[in-house]
Each structure stands twice: as structure tokens, then as C-alpha cells.
Amino acid sequence: MQLIGMLDSPYVRRVAISLQLLGLPFEHQSISVFRAFDRFHAINPLVKAPSLICDDGTVLMDSILITQYAEAFPQKKRSLLPTGLGELQRALRIIGLAMTACEKSVQIVYEHTLRPAEKLHEPWLARVSGQLVAAFQALEDEFAKRPRAVTSTAIDQATLTTAVAWYFSQKLVADIVPAAGYPALVALSTAAETLPEFAAAPYGDGTYRPY
Fold first, then answer.
1. What are 145-155's pLDDT values in tens digits?
2. Residues 92, 98, 102, CA angle at the centre, nearest 5°?
3. Could you report the per-residue pLDDT of 147-188, keeping only the tens digit for each?
4. Torsion angle of alpha carbons 21, 191, 92, 179, nearest 10°?
5. Residue among 15, 8, 56 nearest 35 (CA)
6. Residues 36/80, Cβ–Cβ less than 8 Å
7. Which residues pair with 4 in a beta bridge?
8. In this structure, are strands 27-29 and 2-4 parallel, antiparallel, or unpaired?
9. pLDDT tens for each residue of 119-145
10. Rounded distance, CA 177 to CA 182, Å?
11. Is residue 43 a contact partner of residue 59, using CB atoms and an 8 Å limit?
């Protein structure tokens, strides 16, 4: 399998870390959807990151769908999702919150970087910022109330996705969600970033290197 996209995307990074924890080998091509549009287009005309080129050449998109596909591999080391209905419900709620936090962070970044300053839509920014704060506050409450294990053998998809989302937000929109207000998420992210699977796929424009 080949993972296409840059690790400064929380969606690409989420897939790279998930595949490692599942024990599924892959290659990574760090290709920008902006700076290398034509190159990405040749792989996937939709130019959407992450894209996963499967062994038979099929291209999958969207980190939620890619990780769902990866979970179906019978040779995976373990599942990152619980099997019990109640625990699965809770995990999916957390993943939904974390993915929303990623989405709103990206929207804020794009609004500031892709739109001319004189055309910034402040009501839209205020709305999206409010959604971002609400998502992270819900995650902070969740992990403060019930901390999760953060080791390579115990971390699950909900915890992984939350850690990736928080790290991304602190790199780009920390002024909206300052770390001082989210101690449980800071502790979670700090622990997660020490794991070899996170270190092998560091945030930025580098390429995943197996540890």
C-alpha cells in the first residue's frame, strides 16, 4: 500500500499512525495538494489527501474510510476499535469530536491563508472558532473524566485521533484553543508524541520512516 499526502495534514498523519499500530506495512509519498497539484492529480484526479493506493491499484480517500478498510485486514495485529456496543459508541463519539476539531482548524487556516485579508468573513470565522472550542472542550471533559492508556499496545483510535487533532491545532490555531485551558489534552498529546508510531510519522513536510 502507498499513502499519499503530507504529514502536516492531521488526516494523513492519522492514517500513517493507524497503519503502524495495526501492523500493516505501507510506503509514504509526501506530496502537497497545493505545491504539487499536477503530481497529485496524476495519482488521484480528485487531489484529496490522504489517498491510499491499495495493492491492486484501487485508490481510497478519506481517513475515516481508509482506517475502516485497514481494520478489515485479517493479518492486522489488533483492532483500534472496541467490539462492545457501548464502548464502540463512546469511541465513535470521541472520534467524531476529534475529526470535527480537525475540520474546523483546517477551515480557520484556509480562511486566513487562502482568502485575501480584506475579504475575511468574520461572522464565519467566529462560528467556526466556536465549533472548534466546543469540540475540544467536549474532548477535554471526556479525557479528564476518563483518561485512556497511551502506549503502543493499548492506544485506541479514539485516543489516537484526539492526540493528532490536538497537536495539529496547537501548531496552527493555538490562539483559539490555548493549551492552558486543556490540561487533559496536553497530557494526552505529550504522551502520544513519545510513542514510536507517532515519532515515525512526525507532523510536518517529511516522510514516514519505519522505526
1. 999 999 999 99
2. 140
3. 999 999 999 999 999 999 999 999 999 999 999 999 999 999
4. -140
5. 8
6. no
7. 29, 51
8. parallel
9. 777 888 999 999 999 999 999 999 999
10. 8
11. yes
